[in-house]
Amino acid sequence: MNDTPKQSWWHRLSGGLKRTSASIGSAISDLVSKRKLDAATVEELEELLIRADLGVDTAARIAAAIGEGRYDKQVSDTEVKAILAAEVEKVLGPVAKPLSIDAAAKPFVILVVGVNGSGKTTTIGKLAARFRAEGRRVVLAAGDTFRAAAIEQLKIWGSRTGATVIASQQGADAASLAFEALTAAQREAADVLIVDTAGRLQNKAELMAELEKVVRVMKKVEPAAPHAVLLVLDATVGQNALSQAAEFSRIAGVTGLVMTKLDGTARGGILVALAAKHKLPVHFIGVGEGVDDLAPFAAKDFANAIAGIER
After folding, report:
1. Residues 97-140: tens digit of each pLDDT
2. C-alpha–C-alpha distance, residues 66 and 176, integer Å
3. Residues 284, 258: contact at Cβ < 8 Å?
4. Under 8 Å between Cβ of 215 and 111
5. What backbone phi and psi angles, to 5 degrees, belong to 77?
6. Between the CA of residue 122 and those of 83, 111, 129, what are the distances in Å?
7. Is the pTM above the cut of 0.70?
8. CA-to-CA separations, 285 to 274, 289, 298, in angstroms, rounded
9. Exposure winner among 8, 131, 223, 290, fewest CB in 10 A?
């Protein structure tokens, strides 16, 4: 009985990464079926993995692992995929960390950052649903005051999940709203406060100033806030996710990642490159719009899905 949700999640994850695993898998099959393993084949495998967004260092290490002791031998694509999965898991294992909510912090404040269109507001709604299902009292702050759609979206998630939503009109001061939300969350003895933020990376100076102000104002109410800063990244942007991670880490002191839109993108490998380069904890991944399509990140499952290994 317990296996059913896990199984359906696995189907969604492997389905979501199908384009990544298919492009890697068919290329591996083509390569290894044609000839014995030699330096040229290993180099082609390396290039293939770089094209799949796994990152230069990781691609080199995987290619070396595949080549080790196997030159001039015929290898099967199954063997190559198994090595690929094992090496990817080595990179992802250390960053696969659950988001732990400190019960002593009332409320536990989560600041959510990311560029517009990355799925920030939807992710906040899904997290609210998850926390509510665990019996926690949740307050949401509609801190992306530049976009009326983001404010409305958060209100809908609030009514859907039974979370309290603190919102103002479009164009309101985000820091004032964060202050009001934190004060209300304390008053309500809420367990978790999730704060949405604007994502206009085009004007970095303005965004940086706003985020700094939001944090500064919250610290007046609760010196330890925010307890977590989650960066939401859209997998479909590929290499661009690396610069976003660097930028937001610098601006907001990111403590963990949520990777969204892994459903059907051919860029799923970028999560491996992110893990190798930034070593930020990956808390959740999303493979669709549904409320259940956000789940804690499991390194082995992800590695197997990327390599196209069926369970």
Report:
1. 999 999 999 999 999 999 988 999 999 999 999 999 999 999 99
2. 55
3. yes
4. yes
5. -65, -30
6. 35, 14, 11
7. yes
8. 13, 12, 9
9. 223
